[in-house]
């Protein structure tokens, strides 16, 4: 699977790191013109690597202002697969080996241990930071404009194919979020099930408390090292 040109691949990798974004946001990140970014996005749309949304596929509905609303773009499963197919293939192969050799309980034990490591900091700030470092492009977003809840959003999953075949990865991650935060959380959507984003509702998390973490998580990194 090849991207339609180097410029298009750079645009795709920005979306991989930051999640859904407008053409203006992508152009600012890359330091290129909006027109050039739109050309790359159009090529990615035609190739099936990107999909367009009238609004960001998470969080509250934006307040309508004057002028034409800015659409957002996000990677499709095909686009995410093109970005890091080799890592996901390795994760899937490893889990299949564990399942064949030791059974499904061993897969769950592995998933639980991995999730416990990611959430070991015990705060929402540390969880967001850990997820970002693992390649999940995580942010914390307001659940709605008049709510005291937030949504933990994972705009990318480096092991989405593995999670599709082994849902224990998502299940144990959700349980670990609840245990670390000391409250019940609800998984609203997952990339593994074909949704455009992974979102977890955290009912008693005030969004404003971690705004800085959100902005830090939005910054794309030049390289990413992910450990299974």
Properties at a glance:
single chain; Muramoyl-pentapeptide Carboxypeptidase, domain 2; 12% strand; 2 domains; 228 residues; 4-stranded antiparallel beta sheet; Arc Repressor Mutant, subunit A; alpha+beta; two-stranded antiparallel sheet; 9 helices
Provide a compact summary of the structure:
The protein has helices at 6-18, 23-30, 34-47, 77-102, 104-118, 124-133, 160-165, 168-181, 211-218, and strands at 50-53, 72-75, 138-142, 150-154, 186-189, 198-202.
| Biggest β-sheet description | 4 strands, antiparallel
Domains (count): 2
> Looking across the biggest beta sheet, what order are the strands in?
3-4-6-5
Secondary-structure class: alpha+beta
- Report the β-strand fraction as a percent range: 5-15%
User: How does CATH name the architecture of the largest domain?
Assistant: 2-Layer Sandwich
Shape: globular
> What series of H and E elements makes up the topology?
HHHEEHHHEEHHEEH
- Please bin the fraction of helical residues: 40-55%
Low-confidence stretches: 60-69, 209-228
CATH class of the largest domain: Alpha Beta
Number of helices: 9
**Termini separation:** 24 Å
Q: What is the radius of gyration?
A: 18 Å
CATH topology of the largest domain: Muramoyl-pentapeptide Carboxypeptidase, domain 2
Overall pLDDT: 81
Report on the architecture of this protein.
This protein has 228 residues and is α+β, with helices and mostly antiparallel strands. It folds into two domains: 6-78, Arc Repressor Mutant, subunit A (Orthogonal Bundle); 84-218, 2-Layer Sandwich (Muramoyl-pentapeptide Carboxypeptidase, domain 2), CATH 3.30.1380. It contains nine helices and six strands. It has helices at 6-18, 23-30, 34-47, 77-102, 104-118, 124-133, 160-165, 168-181, 211-218; strands spanning 50-53, 72-75, 138-142, 150-154, 186-189, 198-202. The strands form two sheets. Strands 3-4-6-5 form a four-stranded antiparallel beta sheet. Strands 1-2 form a two-stranded antiparallel sheet. Helix 1 (6-18) crosses helix 3 (34-47), helix 4 (77-102) crosses helix 5 (104-118) and helix 5 runs parallel beside helix 8. The longest helix has 26 residues, at 77-102.
């Amino acid at each position: 699977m090849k991207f339609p040109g180097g410029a298009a691949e750079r645009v795709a990798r920005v979306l991989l790191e930051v999640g859904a974004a407008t053409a203006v946001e992508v152009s600012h990140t890359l330091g290129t013109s909006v027109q050039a970014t739109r050309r790359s996005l159009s090529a990615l749309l035609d190739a099936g690597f990107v999909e367009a949304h009238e609004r960001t596929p998470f969080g509250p509905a934006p307040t309508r202002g004057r002028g034409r609303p800015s659409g957002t773009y996000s990677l499709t499963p095909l686009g995410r697969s093109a970005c890091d197919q080799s890592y996901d293939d390795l994760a899937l192969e490893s889990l299949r080996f564990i399942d064949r050799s030791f059974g499904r309980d061993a897969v769950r034990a592995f998933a639980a241990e991995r999730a416990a490591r990611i959430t070991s900091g015990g705060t929402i700030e540390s969880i967001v930071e850990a997820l970002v470092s693992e390649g999940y492009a995580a942010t914390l977003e307001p659940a709605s404009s008049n709510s005291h809840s937030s949504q933990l959003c994972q705009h990318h999953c480096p092991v989405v194919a593995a999670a599709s075949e082994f849902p224990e990865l998502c299940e144990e991650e959700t349980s670990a979020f609840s245990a670390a935060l000391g409250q019940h959380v609800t998984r609203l959507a997952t990339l593994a099930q074909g949704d455009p984003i992974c979102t977890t509702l955290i009912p008693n998390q005030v969004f404003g408390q971690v705004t800085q973490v959100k902005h830090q998580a939005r910054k794309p990194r030049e390289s990413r090292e992910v450990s299974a």
